[in-house]
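Record 1 of the preview.
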Amino acid sequence: MLLNTGEVGVVSQVFPGFPLRPIVRVIKNPAGEELKSPYEIDLRKEMNITIVKAV
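->
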């Protein structure tokens, strides 16, 4: 999925009460380069980061 930050990630965990605010494992930076060390963002805690579209 594409985030509003330009990063690309995959959903690693979904929470029943928050289906649109999953934990996302970021695998590509905004330049489209694969990360050597992917990291996770909990969208329930990072309210300024949103999913833009599925890729």
